[in-house]
Amino acid sequence: MPGGNKEAWPHLKPIFQAIAAKAPDGAACCDWVGEGGAGHFVKMVHNGIEYGDMQLISEVYHVFRNGVGLTNDEQGDIFAQWNKGVLDSFLIEISTDILRYKDTDGEPLLEKIRDAAGQKGTGKWTAIAALDYGMPVTLIGEAVFARCLSSIKDERVRASKILAGPSNSTYTGDKAQLIKAFEQAMYASKIISYAQGFMLMRETSEQFKWNLNYGSIALMWRGGCIIRSAFLGDIKSAFDNNKDLESLLFDPFFQKATANAQAGWRNAISTATLIGIPVPALSTALSFYDGYRTARLPANMLQAQRDYFGAHTYELEATPGTYIHTNWTGRGGNVSASNYDV
C-alpha cells in the first residue's frame, strides 16, 4: 500500500509489483495509493479492519464453546464449511486450523492459551483517527476495547465470582439453526466493518485531497494481507459500479446481503445476550446498521440537554445552519457557548 510522490511511482512500480503477493487472478497486490501519507493511512485502516474480523471470529467461538457446548473439532468443521462460502477468508482458514490443532498431550492447544490479548496499536490508531475525523467506526473501536477488557484478566476472574448473570447460560434450541444465524451475523457484521473503514478513508481522502481509488484498495487486499477474502471482490465490483459510492451499504449487492442476513443476525445477538455471552463487535455492527437506516435519531434530545446545562445551542429542523439558545428555566441570561465541528 505505497503512498508518496506520484512521479516516483512509475520507477518503483516494477520492483514493488514483482515482489508483491499475487491475487488468485495473478494481479499484483500492490499499487500506488495516493499522495503524502495515504499509504500509511490505508495500511492502518486495513489493520483496524483486521482487529474487527478477528474479534468477530472470537465472539462466535465463545458462543459456540460456552453457550452451545460445541467441541473445538466441531467448530473446526463449521469454520471449514464457512470457508467455502461468503465467509471465505484467510482468518477463517487459520481459525479452522487453530481449532483443530492438538498439543503433545492430544488436547486442543487453543484451550491452554491465556485469554489476555496483546496489541501493537494499529487498531487503536484507527479508532483514534475515527474520533478525530468524526466517523462512526464503531466495530473497530469495540474490537480494541475487547482486547483491553481481556487484558485485565485478574480483575475479571474476581468479578466472575461475585457478579450475577442469567440463570440459564446454555442454549437449548436448535443448534443447526443457531449456527446458520451466526454465519449470517458474521457476514453482515463484516460488511458493516468494511463499510465503516471505507467511510473513514473517504473522509480523510477528501480532507487531504488523496483521491483514493477504493476499488483498487479492495483489490490490493485480496492477497498477502491478513484480511484477504473472496468478499473483497464484491467491494471492488461495488466501486466499479459507482466510483463515487457514498457507502458500501448503498450498493445493491450489499443492501440485499444485509437484508437477507438480518433475521439471523438479530437472532444470534439476542441469543448471546440472553445466555450472558458478550458479543460487542457483533452487537455494535447491528446497532450501527439500525442507526444508519434511521432517518431521525434522538440527537435532538442530546442537543436540548447540551443547551439546557451549557448553552451550547441547537438547530431547528426548519432552519438548519442557524444556531439558537433557549433560556429553558427562565433564569439566567441568553449568552450561548461557542460551537465547533468534530
Write the layout of secondary structure elements.
Layout: H1 9-19, H2 38-68, H3 72-82, H4 90-100, H5 122-132, H6 138-151, H7 153-160, H8 175-208, H9 214-220, H10 231-241, H11 252-274, H12 280-292, H13 299-310, E1 314-316, E2 319-324
Antiparallel strand pairs: 1-2
Helix pairs in contact: 2-5, 2-6, 2-8, 3-4, 5-6, 6-12, 8-11, 8-12, 9-10
Protein name: Phosphogluconate dehydrogenase (Decarboxylating) gnd1
Organism: Kickxella alabastrina
Describe this structure in words.
With 342 residues, this protein is an all-alpha fold. The chain has one domain: N-(1-d-carboxylethyl)-l-norvaline Dehydrogenase, domain 2 (Orthogonal Bundle). It contains 13 helices and two strands. It has a two-stranded antiparallel sheet. The longest helix is centred in the middle third of the chain and has 34 residues. The model has no long low-confidence stretch (mean pLDDT 93). It comes from Kickxella alabastrina. This is Phosphogluconate dehydrogenase (Decarboxylating) gnd1.
What's the short story on this structure?
With 342 residues, this protein is mainly alpha-helical. The chain contains 13 helices and 2 strands. It has helices at residues 9-19, 38-68, 72-82, 90-100, 122-132, 138-151, 153-160, 175-208, 214-220, 231-241, 252-274, 280-292, 299-310, and strands at 314-316, 319-324.
Q: Any idea what the radius of gyration is?
A: 23 Å
CATH superfamily membership, which one? Answer: N-(1-d-carboxylethyl)-l-norvaline Dehydrogenase, domain 2
Overall structural domain count: 1
Give the spatial strand order of the biggest sheet: 1-2
Mean pLDDT across all residues, rounded? Answer: 93
From the 3D coordinates, which CATH architecture would you assign?
A: Orthogonal Bundle
Number of H/I helices: 13
